[in-house]
Amino acid sequence: MNALSNMLSHASRIGVIARHAFTQLVRMKVFYFLAFFAVILIASNFFSLPQHVGPESEGVRVLRNIKSWSLGAMTLFALVISVVSTALLLPKDVEDRTLYTILAKPVPRLDYLAGKLLGVLLLVFVSLALMDLLMTGALQLRTNMILTEQVALAESRGWPAQDIAILREEILSHGPTASLQGAVFSVFLRASIIASLALLISTFSSSTLFTTNISFLIYFIGHFQADARSVFTGGGDGTGDGLLIRGASLLFSLAIPDFQLFNVIDAVIEGQVMPLAILLKLTLVALFYFVFYVLASWFVFAKKEF
Prior knowledge:
Helix content is 82%, strand content 0%. It contains 12 helices and no strands. Helix 5 (109-156) runs antiparallel to helix 7, helix 5 runs antiparallel to helix 12 and helix 7 crosses helix 8 (208-222). By secondary structure, the protein is an all-alpha fold.
């Protein structure tokens, strides 16, 4: 009973801090600027579509472009919002002296860090949900228009019913699908990893600029993690040096996420189906690094004096 009461107490404190962090971030003008720019990027695909009228392959290409631009914009803004917002949180609380007020109360530092990070992730989730809603609406509208045009064109050319059915299926595979929603969720998972990484760096960083730069640097290094691991493990020969290299490779893999795993959204853009097993794997990978980075942040932050 006491354990349950303690868990509820921790959850309540984390929820309060998360709501405060979310409100604090929403009030920052940079968030509105980024969201506005994302809307312009997605809407530009919508307004340029009437220029693409032609052979049946053009319709699929237009739908692919809408998904590519939209998911690209979502990825960019999710990463930027995650890193910048997390990098700003701790320095902002120190500057406003909010941190001293919170820590003066019986609030565990782990609850404080978890609440702040969840506030950032809530902001990213809401941003992605709004962009996803806009993308899905525009994509559904364009899919219906292209489907009507292409089917009418095929019928006027006397296509067999079987070929028209294949054309219809091809166009619908590039419209709003469950795999597309899975791709958006994978964007959120990748953003949650980079946000928790930025939180870890901010616990020992002395400036927001340092946290931002190092976070983006590790993000780019993470895209080559699989290649580096392959080179390391290829050098293992079972000897002492080989075991040392394998151990170093394992530690490298634990510290730096393999962000190439999240490039499965490219296959979704091409109209392929994202298996549920892949989405589950990405969720577990994101959960592992989220917990790992939060615990590491707590380890550093718990010993820090203010």
